Amino acid sequence: PVDTLAVRGLPAVLNCSAASNALVRVEWKKDGTFLNLVADDRKRQLADGSLLISTVVHSKHNKPDEGVYQCVATIDNLGTISSRTARLTVAGLPRFLSQPEGVSVRMGGTEMLSCEVTEELVPFTRWERDGRPVELDGRVIQLPSGALVISNASQSDAGLYRCTIDGLGPAKSTEEAELQVSAGTDRHGVGVLEVAGVPENAERKCHFNTSSSPHISFFLFFSSRERFAVIGGGSLQIVNLTEEDAGIYACQTDSDNMTSEIQAELTVHVPPRFLTRPSNTYAQESMDIIFECDVTGSPPLTVKWMKDGDTVIPSDYFRIVKQHNLQVLGLVKSDEGFYQCLAENEAGNVQASAQLIILDLDVALPSAVPSLTDATTDHVASSPAQRNGPTPSAPRDVVASLVSTRFIKLTWRLPAEPHGENISYSVFYSLEGTNRERVENTSGPGEMQVTIQNLAPDTKYTFRVVASNANGPGESSTPLTVATQLEVQVPGPAPNLQVVSVSTASVTLSWERPSTGNGEIQTYRLFYSEKGQDSEQDMEVTGLSYTMTGLKKFTEYSFRVVAYNKHGPGVSTEDVVVRTLSDVPSAPPQNLTLEVLNSTSIMVHWQPPPPGTLNGELTGYKLRYRKGLRRADAIEISTTQLFQLIDGLEKGKVYTVRVSASTVNGTGPTTEWIAAETFENDLDESQVPGVPSSLHVRPLVNRIVVSWTPPENQDILVRGYKIGYGIGSPHAHTVTLDYKQRFYSIDDLDPSSHYVITLKAFNNMGEGIPIYNSATTRPQSAPDPTPMLPPVGVQATVLSQDTVKVSWADNSLAKNQKITDSRYYTIRWKTNIPANTKYKMANTTSLFHTVTALKPNTLYEFSVMVTKSRRSSTWSMTAHGTTFESVPSSAPKDVTVISKEGSPRIININWQPPTEANGKITGYIIYYSTDVNAEVHDWVVEPVVGNRLTHQIQGLTLDTTYYFKIQARNSKGMGPMSDAVQFRTPKGKASTLFRLTYKPGITGSQENHILVIVVIVSYMIFVKYNKNKIFNIQSSTGSHKYKSSSKDLKPPDLWIHHERLELKPMDKSPDPNPVMTETPIPRTAPDPAAEPSHQRRGLEGEESVSTLAGRRGVRPKVMMPFDSQPSQPVISAHPIHSLDHLHHHHHHYHLPPRGYLHHQIGLRAPATPSTLSDRPPSAESVRSQPPAPEPPVAPSQPSTTAELQKTEALIKEEEPPSINPPTAHVRPTHPLKSFAVPAITVSAHNPPTYETALPSTPLLAQPGLMFVCVSVPGVKMASIGTLNRVRAPMAVTVPSAPDQSETSKMLEVVSTYETDELSEEMAHLEGLMKDLNAITTG
């Protein structure tokens, strides 16, 4: 078919002819959609395939025939080809854009009379002079624009001229314009240059109004001067126009020493023309082929490929190479068919076809190129002779000897049974997960290696090798799966990809150059897809921004960008989703119907606009109705429903209604006015309806279609109809229908059976008189083809939290499960939560499908059906699979905080599980803070284990605003946090009791207040029990020697529990002056008896429990109630030197690491093991003490006999023999936790030597008590649970290990404490107590 200009009301023909030895079926497409010629009585297809439009219809609002047509020819079981496209244009109404004007021309001069019409009307124009047609010649010509040019004018040219449009119905003419020819000369003139062209020739009109004949010449720049002629006194005509004729033309005139020049540019449009056409091809499966298509034209043209009438979409296996050629990789049987190359530009379009025939592997490829439809049944006219003889076995030991990013080298060994010489090999390979194989043959016989090129990086491929001899291909090797290496030289992702909607159909994208470019960026490729569509389109972009147009209105699109360098594509950006801007609806609502209910009301129904035309969020509908058919005041009603009752109307009046849809952007187009007339009077229901006026039946095999007309008396109300039917009697079955219905299909009838049918109308008064008819159903025809067997062995393999792979087998295929026909499979899946979930479906041509976009931790059911031609199977048995869990994607909801009644410092926080838990909730994390803008790590954390939905938080501050957040967790991790919920604790009265407890977060001066309280309370207890006692500190010199061995040494009996600590009595020591340290020997140390005593001496450091807890970063609440003890025993404490003063000592001490501090605790004191026998071990002490822990040895310390031994000091109390002193012990009913501090090692470069020991008089044996407390910032102090009972004081000390001189000074300071000084200290503490009371009450 060719482009055609049709005339309204006249017939039009579009030619199409298809020739073949087989039966050809010809169909027509209009604007890409097949025409239904059965339903269109104006269009019919002629015997040769041409399309005849008997009467062309065309109006301002209805243009059903204008458009682009295409002829499609199909041969069953072979393929389809399409013709070029042809545009049918209907000429518009005859009208003139302007009227010619009367002019005067001198004798011998040139004049032009214009006739302005639209382009399609130019062929229908002609000129008349004085009512007779103007004869055209070389002097009088009509330009392609319709204008008339008269050169070398004479008196015979004078007259009345008019332009006429003829051939489009009645002729239509312009007004007459008079041309006068006068004598005389006029030296001045005006020049005009026009350009007019047709596909074959072009004219350049150079017209000057002058009184004499000027000399006119043309100059063509950048072109030759052949085929040119000046006609009509100044028009340039070019015949056989070619692309080389394009250029700049200048019209120059010389007349009486005056020269004028005008220029114009000629652009030539060249229709597409094939330089190389695609050729028919024989091939075998797994081969690669290329269809060539070299085409030229101007302006630049677009080329697309089609296979059997469907557009070929480029993919991994269908590629466009060398600009327009189509490459098909890894042929499969379904690739067989007709391929067409279609080229198009503004000047026209062309197409060329080629056939692809895929032969079996045992059929040799013919050398001759087949014709278009030859060998379509058997593929080749003569089959080759059958080859007899064995074929090779499978090649052995197929390995990938070299793996790179884009190629893999394979090697193998000779088959065990080659059965001949000159063995050749073929390597078949495919992308993992696909069934399309490609083949690569070795370069020569006997070669057992091949390199597979052009692979994708970081991708798995499957390889197999087949050996061939003279008898054909043999067995295949076992498939080998190899993954290419990751490409590292490609560009990284383009950062800062931004997509902004700029209009209803366009978006602007911008991005930055990748930070890891790995070389020069050559280009960018932009990928985009419409939401809900599986196919992704792409385009090449050179800059860092692009504006994409032609998008759908109010539609979501996904965009991503990939940078390319010389190594190939880089890493893709993340998808960015954007929606184009909304607009008013582009189509009116559908199916507008009016139903007259009575004499004063009409019910209006309609449907929404077609999908894709709403262009935004629907805000409602506007309904306008008016009385009468002509213009009148219309009433407007706004509604969001699809129906509207209009009441209060006048009786017997005609009303017209129209409806439009609205979005936030405005109101769209309205429907046509639909009319309905209200009843003159309401219908009568005082009697039953009459008999229906007619009853028609149309029998089929298993059903009868019944139609009827209502009773003739329309004044009686009919509320419905009843149909009765049965074999021989109409009373077997009854069906009740609505009063508006006029036909009904009676289904499930028996073939070849006689049925009697009755119909009657009814209303509230009763049933009317029935009308009867009968019909015999048709006999049963041949049975329908048997359905296909459903797929079996359906399996659902869960791959991730949102992906499941479904695979199956097809029993209707061969044993190798190879698909060789056009069947396809449909997979459907759904979840039972919620119960009304609809099935989702997908089609595939392989025996598996990967279902994506599923919900995490959700049970899905899958089933499969197979379809071949018009046959389909039933659904297979279902397979189930539960997707993996993922982190919660939503936060807990409905978070509420309430205060506990009666406890203003306690709140209860409640919540609901997250909507998208994506797995089993294993717990929640509660965050709360007084600063909503604080960093997350500064919020207080409260974990909740399990799926509890409530939690209690205690110890909050009164009259304080708190903010709470909650996040859920499952086995995969934490979900998002909920929004902060604000709650302010109520106001409360200060408590009269003094309760010292620890709360996390208390720092600074508050710790000092707690410390002062501890000191004051302890001091008051001390004064009560020791009013008349003074400190008596004795010292003695000399060294004591211990006789007991090291095996009697025990670790310190100092254990701390988080809740309670008590004091217990300890056995007396027979030695009146024991030294209160013992030195346990590590198990790895040599025998102490064999070493000098000074090598076994060491210093150990001790830290208080509070200091220990501070270093460990643990802040537990420690409550320490004490039991009552006799008044005689007292506990004294050593004076303390701060650890900050360690550098003043004679020796340098190396503190152990922080993590080691929780192992040991003890006092520093030198000792000699020879004096241990002076006091036998206490049985109770030994019984209550656990084994001594073995201190770790630093790996950097040398293991020699000169190494300093680490010691551990034991704290013991001493008193006169008649007193039973208390010692610390732990109740056996509580779990215990030991805290210890390692010894402080002595620097190896300055080992200590002791000539004399420290004073051996026990400090704890003195009848007095002194508390020495050291405040360490950031350390939790022991709190006292109750104050209403008298309790024995307990000292918690942090002693250091001074040398001899330091210790002597300390003891001298302690001995100077007198009663006056204690009184002054007491007064000072009372002042501190008052300050503390003021602070707490405030």
Automatic annotation (TrEMBL):
Q: List, alphabetically, the InterPro entries matched.
A: FN3_dom, FN3_sf, Ig-like_dom, Ig-like_dom_sf, Ig-like_fold, Ig_I-set, Ig_sub, Ig_sub2
As for subcellular location, the record says: Membrane
Tell me where in this chain the Ig-like domain is found: 1-89, 94-182, 206-267, 272-357
- Residue ranges, compositional bias (Polar residues): 375-391
Alphabetical keyword list: Disulfide bond, Glycoprotein, Immunoglobulin domain, Membrane, Repeat, Transmembrane, Transmembrane helix
For bias type Basic and acidic residues, the affected ranges are 1061-1070
Pfam families, alphabetically?
A: fn3, I-set, Ig_2, Ig_3, Neogenin_C
For this UniProt entry, what's an example GO CC term? membrane
Gene3D superfamilies membership: Immunoglobulins (2.60.40.10)
List each copy of the Fibronectin type-III domain by range: 394-487, 493-583, 588-681, 691-784, 790-886, 891-988
Q: Name one GO biological process term.
A: cell-cell adhesion
- Composition bias type Pro residues, residue spans: 1186-1195
Q: How does it sit in the membrane?
A: Single-pass type I membrane protein
User: Which region ranges are annotated with the description Disordered?
Assistant: 375-396, 1061-1131, 1166-1205
Organism domain of life: Eukaryota
**Family named by the database record:** Belongs to the immunoglobulin superfamily. DCC family.
Protein name, per record: Neogenin 1
